[in-house]
Structures are given as structure tokens and as C-alpha cells.
């Protein structure tokens, strides 16, 4: 079972054999999670939570087994390892550090807190009342701060959290990045909103997003697009429905994505499919030899998001894509006269709104900056929880020019904090900016560029190493230029 | 989490806390298995097999942990336990015996053999060639014989295997049971086939089973039936599609059944749903306090099958059921003039055939007798594998009056042996016979009879103890009389 071509070091082989147990636990946990989001009867979630909680503690215990830890120490001290072998040690040492530094009691408490908090968050969002969610939110930030203390940091506890989601990411990298893009994006947004085209578009009574579609027909269109992108669709890859789109991979031969169906706004369902396909492709094209090892599947969150955003923005929102599937779109959307121009305008409409998930390519990053500031402020105890809602609303006004009418449209809109994730959001913006650089690279590269340069390596390399390997330096101006070029054409300025 | 009303003994409480880890492993394995049969992309099965194999060895290792085994020994020596507490010890000791007596190498080898054998069996069945499957089949019987040696037995190694599926079942109980029912069933079948009604029915050109139906409409009918039986349908219970109907339960609040759709023979899809509902109801009505303990869910296979067969035969095949759902059936089946009489005749048609899964209430047991004889003969080395196909065909001729035309209709028809199950089949007949006794008991009992007398106990009791508790003695004449009464009316003799 252990891949023999890539892995030859005897210590590594022993590590991989033991790791297969940990992989098996992750595999079934992931299946159970996919099930929870897709087919599980509502009342089944309690047993799900109980089982997954136990599995997490079993996994921690097995990970900290002396035999395994000693193998890791031994491998770490060895020279002459291949890139993949070093990748394995790097990934496992990161996890080991996490398990060693966090008491298992803390892990279990955190798991229980976030399980409950997600349910409370759902209730608060439904009832449109932040007060219901305030207490669990404060606890989640308290525990995240505690986690940062356990894990250790140099400048700010927030850096320990950023590092959880993107290895080596710090506030000193995120802050200047946002500073660099803020003004150009603001200027671009101003130019767009002042353009005549924008003014006309905003007066239209029935833009395409309000036209109804039939769910079954929409699903058919989604599958047709996926089959075009990936002819193996159905054999090692499938599409399901969930309350929020996501991708999950159980290996190269079983990767699944989901989308949603709102019965209007067909681009929302379709672009979600294309976005998730970008994630899926990354997972499916990780080299077969890496299967069931710690470096199988996508590397970091930034690279992952750069894949999904590449497909969503640079493929799905392109004129070429719309041309190819226009007849199918026309068959899917009720009584509408879709043209390439009208769909292109609809897919690329810029408009500041209060909801992150509905934001366009230009305004999206303001949503992320807002969250970055709040997360950092809360972790550094510079914002009080009692000021939170007002702070959110004021910052939305500052960045986007409008205020959320309700908590559900404001501070309650995202699921991340309820699930315990603090420090996750910046990867969305970084990934999106990086995707423009892949788009540039692909233009001059061979076909299968992504597979050859990124996908096959799984998580062998960190983001920085992968960029270095591909001789690409992270450069926000590439995406800024792409946005400027694209939207000056669309809005005619 | 640990139920406090039923379980008070401190040792039992410790056992249950540890057991929750084992339960969590079983829970996620079961979800993964359901996924395999319903939604998994075909190419995902390799990773599935690898993960489940590892989980099985993790579970064995955790089960054999000295701390846990000592707790079991301690509890075993204690008096004053409740029935439920004794049930827990009984079930866990059975599993402990299995894990202790079988080397883990044997368990892993057996797992690998049956994983491969199932794939080979599918190929053999498709290609209609027993020769392809002969070798793995011989190995499976060899390993089953070896398993019997490990586990120990008194009279014949086959008894050790029977006991795996039905605690305490032996050849000395199964043999006389089949002897008792053989002649009466043969006589009944003779009377039926000689009746004028049978002769007329066999001449009809278009019996109902050949009429086509629409899959989506059929699924709607199935769900309507389930919602009538179980108004909570959708909240803690759902219906899916698989290549062979089955039931799986992840707890009282998440039980799932599947059915199949052949687009003709609508009773086959509907009666499968009703059959599986019988299994599901048993699992869903196990007392809440037993959740996540070793005695949650149905008790033995015989009792389980007695539940499914009760619903299938005594409810689904009844005139009352057909009357209630006739308009829905009419809407579902294309261009047919369904009447209560025609559907009743179709649901209860007796006709000897070569396929077990399509057999009626009268001829079904001949299929089981045949398998019982072959299994016992192979385990006791009285039948050679080279004679197997001829033996199967000759016995089919003897019992059912006709010979399989192909291996797929004959010795290759069942999945059980390829999955390693030897000694399973007799529970089907025993359960079916027992179901007639429940039907009798329910007639004079209160509503919710099944919940009160059987379901709530989970697997607290063995079959024998449960019968004793309900003051019912297993009596094959009850089902024989039911069949005689029913079919003499249908076939007018």
C-alpha cells in the first residue's frame, strides 16, 4: 500500500504505515461530515457530534503515541530526504506541535463549545438578534486567545491563529497587503459607480438575478459544465446539495462538491459549482503516490482558494465560458432572453452590498479587511464585545458606503466564528489575489499548467516554497491591474 | 451522556464511558458503509476498503485494552445487575471472545479476502461464470472453518458459525425445524399448483409485474407509505437507493433504508420498502436510554428478520394495505387498471422460481434449506467445491421442481458468501416463521405492541429470553397454518 517510488527512507515508510491509522480516522470523519451537510436527517446531528468528538480524542491519543513521536524525531534528524519526505515531516510536526501544546481537555472543550455555538449562531441569525450569540462568541475568542498562548507567538497572539490556517502567515504580512490594495480598489469602485453604464444598469427593473429557474434543470446545467471540465464526472467526482457550497476530498478517486439552489439568481448556483470545482481539481490532481499520506490533497488555504477563485473569476466569469454554455443557460432560466452580453454584465456586475458571499470581485476584499481588523482587535483585546455590533456597522459604512439593516446581514452573516475559526478570512483575499497570477502564468504556459506546477505536489511545499519553485513572487498589482483592465472595459471609463 | 436511569452500577458506567469510543468507531464505519452503497463514486471503493480495514484493527486493539477487559471481568463477577446491565455484559463478552480467540492477522486477512471476493463475485455474476468465483469461495469456506476452530464448538464447526449470527443457534435446532416445515410446505405448494385458479393465472399474458412505472412517481409512493407508517419521516429517518435494499441505523434519531427501482414489477420496490421499514422501526424504537451503548438497536438477526417479514407479509401483502394505497398505485403504474383484487393476486402470487429474493411466502424456505445444506456440507467437508454447481442445481430441481438456467440464477445469485457470511441464511426462515407469531400476538394485543414487547429492549435479551419474557414459544405451526389459511382462500382449494 505504501507508495514505493517516492518514499524510500525506512523511517518514513514506518511513519506512513502508522499514519494510515490516522488517515483512516480522518477519512471516516470526513465522510460523516459530508453526510451531515448533505443527507443526514436533522435529528441525527447530536449523535454525529458525539461520535466525531470521540474520534478527535482517539486521533490525538494515537498521534501522541511514543512510538510514532520517536519515529518523527528520528526522521527529523535525517538528511538526504526527498522534497516529499520533508513535506511529510513538516506537516506531521505541525500537527504534533498542536497536539502536544494543547491539553486534550482544551481540545474537547473547544469542540463542545463550537458544536453548541454553531447551533446558537443559527438561532441568532434566524431571529436576527446578535445578543443571543454574543456570549458564545466572546467565549470562542477567549479560547482562541488561550490557544494562541499555548501555541506561542512573537508579535501578537493573532499571528498564532493566522498560522493555523496558513503556515507562516503573520499580521505583518496581512496588514501591508491590505494597505496596498485598499486605495486602488476604492478608486476603482469610485470610477465604476460614477460611470454612466453603472447608472443605467442600476435603473433596470428586472436584472437577470431575479429571473426564476427550475432546480432540476439548473442541476442538469451544473453537471453538464462539470462534465465538460472533468469527463470522469460521476466516476471519481460528484455534485451534491448543501446549505452552503463546499468541497471535500476522500482521495483522488473520490472528491465531492456541493452547491445551493435559490430558484433565482442562477449565476449564484453555477459560479459556486465552478468555484468548488477549482478546489476539487486541486485535490483530484494531487499525485497518486501521495494518497493516504499526510501530504495528499491541497496544500495551504491560500493556494486552495487561489484555485477556486481562478476557476470562478477567470473561467466562470469569462465571455468564452458564457458563449459556450449560453444555449444551456437559455434552456434553464425561465422566459428570459439571455445573451452573451446580458449574462456577462450580470456575472460581472459590481455593487457594494452588506453580504460577503454575494460580493463582486472589486468589493469582496473590503469585507475581508473588516473581518481582519475585528478579529485582530478582539484577540488583542482592543475591541470590547459590547462595541462589536456598532464597530461592524460603522466599518461597513466606511468601507462599503452602506450599513447593514439587520444583524443577519451584518455581524451574524458568517458561520466561521461560530465554528471556532479565527484567522481564516485573510486567506480568501490572498488566494483571490494569487489566482490572478496563476491566470497570467497559464496564459504563457502549456496546457495542464495547474496540474504540473501546483496540483501534483499536494502539500509537499508551503505557499512560499511553491511560489519560489514556480519562480513567482506574490504581487498584488497583478490582480489590481486585471481588475482595472476588466472593469474599465465593462463600465466604459 | 451516560444514561443514568437504567445504568447505575459504577463498573457498568465506566464500561459505557470507554465503550463510547468503540461506538464512535462503529458509527463512522456505518456511515461510510451507507455512503459506499448509496452515493460513493465507483472509484472511491478502494480507499473505503483501506480505511475500514484499518478502523477494524483500531477497534480490536481498543477493545482488547487491559483496562477495558478488566472492567468487563469485574462487572461479570458482580451480582444485583439490571437486565440491561446484564445485556451489556453479555454482548460485550461475546465480542471479547471473538476478538480474543481470532488473531488480528486472521481478522485482517479475512477482511482483505472478502473485500476482493466481493469484487470477483460481481464479475463472475456479470459474466455468468461460476469458475471465476470458485477459488475465492473455497478460501472463504476454508477461513470460516478455521474461524470455527478458533471459536470452538461442540458438535459441528458449522454451529460456531451459526452462533455468530444468532446467539445459541445450532444445527440441532435448524435441522429439525426444516424437517418439520418441509412436507407441509411441499403439500401446500402442490395444492396451489394443482388449483384451477393457479392454472388460469399462469396463462395471463400481461401480469402486473411486467407493467412499467416511472421511477420518480414510484419514489413518491414509497415515501407516502413511509410517512403513513412513520409521520416523523425525514426528521430521523430517510429512504435512499442502492443496488440491493438494506437498513442501517446510526441511532434512534437517524435510521435509513434503501430500495431499488427496476422500472417494472412495482411490488418489488414497494415491498422492499415495507420490509426495510420493519427493520428500521425496530431500530428507531429501541429505548432512548440505550443509545450509544452495546445494547442499542435490534437484538438478534432472527428477531430483526421477524420484524421486517411481519411488515412485508402481514402488512404490505394484506388486502387492507392495498385498499388504502390503491389510488396511489394507480397513479404510479402506467396505463394499468389496478384493482384491489388484481394487486392482491399479484402481491401474493405463488410460483416456484430459481431466485431467492423473488420467492413468495411458500417457496422461500426451500431456497434457504438448500443453502443450509450446502453451507453445512462444505464446512463439514462433505461436499467438494468441484461438485458445488451440480449439487446446487440438483437440489433446486428437487426442492423447487426446476433448474437454474445459468450460474447467475443459481449458485452465484447471493452476495452473502462473497462477503464472508456463512451461517447467516437460516435466520431468514426462522425470522419469517416467527413473524407469524408476532402477527397472532398483535391481533389480541394493544397498539404499540411491538414497541412494548420487543423494540424497546434493544438487544438486552437473547431470542430465547425475549420469547420467554413474552410467554411465547417458537412454534412453526403458526406460520404453516397462516399460509394454509391464506393460500387456500387465494387459490380456492
UniProtKB/TrEMBL annotation, chains A, B:
One example of a Gene Ontology biological process annotation: proteolysis
SUPFAM superfamilies: Metalloproteases ('zincins'), catalytic domain
PROSITE patterns reported in the protein's UniProt record: PEPTIDASE_M32 (PS52034)
Co-factor: note: Binds 1 zinc ion per subunit.
Catalytic center residues: 276
Organism: Candidatus Woesebacteria bacterium GW2011_GWB1_33_22
Keywords: Carboxypeptidase, Hydrolase, Metal-binding, Metalloprotease, Protease, Zinc
Catalytic activity of the protein: Release of a C-terminal amino acid with broad specificity, except for -Pro
Name of the protein this chain belongs to: Metal-dependent carboxypeptidase
First-tier enzyme category under EC: hydrolase
Coiled coil feature spans: none
Keyword Metal-binding: yes
Primary role: Broad specificity carboxypetidase that releases amino acids sequentially from the C-terminus, including neutral, aromatic, polar and basic residues.
Record: residues binding Zn(2+): 275, 279, 305
Matches recorded under Pfam families: Peptidase_M32
GO molecular-function terms, A-Z: metal ion binding; metallocarboxypeptidase activity
Amino acid at each position: 500500500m505504501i507508495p514505493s517510488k517516492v518514499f524510500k527512507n525506512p523511517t518514513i515508510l514506518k511513519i506512513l504505515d502508522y499514519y494510515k491509522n490516522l488517515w483512516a480516522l480522518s477519512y471516516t470523519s470526513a465522510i460523516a461530515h459530508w453526510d451531515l451537510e448533505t443527507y443526514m436527517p436533522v435529528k441525527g446531528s447530536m449523535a454525529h457530534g458525539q461520535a466525531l468528538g470521540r474520534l478527535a480524542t482517539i486521533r490525538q491519543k494515537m498521534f501522541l503515541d511514543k512510538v510514532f513521536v520517536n519515529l518523527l524525531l528520528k526522521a527529523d534528524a535525517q538528511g538526504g530526504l526527498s522534497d516529499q519526505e520533508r513535506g511529510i515531516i513538516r506537516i506531521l510536526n505541525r500537527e504534533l506541535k498542536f497536539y502536544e501544546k494543547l491539553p486534550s481537555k482544551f481540545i474537547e472543550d473547544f469542540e463542545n463549545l463550537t458544536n453548541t455555538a454553531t447551533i446558537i449562531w443559527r438561532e441568532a441569525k434566524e431571529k436576527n438578534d446578535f445578543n443571543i450569540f454574543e456570549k458564545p462568541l466572546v467565549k470562542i475568542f477567549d479560547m482562541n486567545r488561550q490557544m494562541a498562548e499555548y501555541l506561542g507567538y512573537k508579535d501578537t497572539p493573532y499571528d498564532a491563529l493566522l498560522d493555523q490556517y496558513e503556515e507562516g502567515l503573520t499580521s505583518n504580512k496581512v496588514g501591508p497587503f491590505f494597505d496596498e490594495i485598499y486605495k486602488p480598489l476604492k478608486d476603482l469602485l469610485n470610477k465604476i459607480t460614477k460611470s454612466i453604464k453603472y447608472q443605467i444598469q442600476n435603473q433596470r427593473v428586472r436584472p437577470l438575478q431575479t429571473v426564476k429557474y427550475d432546480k432540476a434543470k439548473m442541476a442538469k446545467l451544473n453537471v453538464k459544465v462539470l462534465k465538460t471540465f472533468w469527463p470522469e464526472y460521476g466516476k471519481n467526482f460528484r455534485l451534491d446539495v448543501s446549505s452552503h457550497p463546499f468541497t471535500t476530498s476522500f482521495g483522488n478517486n473520490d472528491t465531492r462538491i456541493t452547491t445551493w439552489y435559490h430558484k433565482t439568481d442562477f449565476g449564484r448556483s453555477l459560479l459556486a459549482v465552478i468555484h468548488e470545482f477549482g478546489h476539487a481539481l486541486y485535490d483530484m490532481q494531487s499525485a497518486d503516490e501521495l494518497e493516504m499520506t499526510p501530504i495528499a490533497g491541497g496544500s495551504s488555504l491560500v493556494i486552495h482558494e487561489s484555485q477556486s477563485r481562478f476557476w470562478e473569476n477567470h473561467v466562470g466569469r469569462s465571455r468564452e465560458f458564457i458563449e459556450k454554455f449560453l444555449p444551456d443557460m437559455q434552456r434553464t432560466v425561465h422566459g428570459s432572453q439571455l445573451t452573451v452580453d446580458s449574462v456577462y454584465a450580470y456575472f460581472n456586475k459590481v455593487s457594494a452590498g452588506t453580504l460577503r458571499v454575494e460580493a463582486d470581485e472589486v468589493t469582496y476584499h473590503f469585507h475581508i479587511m473588516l473581518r481582519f481588523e475585528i478579529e485582530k482587535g478582539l484577540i488583542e483585546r482592543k475591541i470590547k464585545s459590547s462595541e462589536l455590533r456598532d464597530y461592524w456597522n460603522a466599518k461597513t459604512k466606511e468601507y462599503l458606503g452602506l450599513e447593514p439593516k439587520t444583524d443577519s446581514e451584518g455581524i451574524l452573516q458568517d458561520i466561521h466564528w461560530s465554528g471556532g475559526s479565527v484567522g481564516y478570512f485573510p486567506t480568501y483575499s490572498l488566494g483571490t489575489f494569487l489566482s490572478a497570477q496563476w491566470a497570467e502564468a497559464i496564459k504563457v504556459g502549456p496546457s495542464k499548467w495547474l496540474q504540473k506546477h501546483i496540483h501534483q505536489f499536494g502539500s509537499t511545499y508551503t505557499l512560499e516554497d511553491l511560489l519560489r519553485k514556480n519562480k513567482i513572487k506574490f504581487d498584488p498589482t497583478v490582480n489590481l491591474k486585471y481588475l482595472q483592465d476588466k472593469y474599465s472595459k465593462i463600465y466604459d471609463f
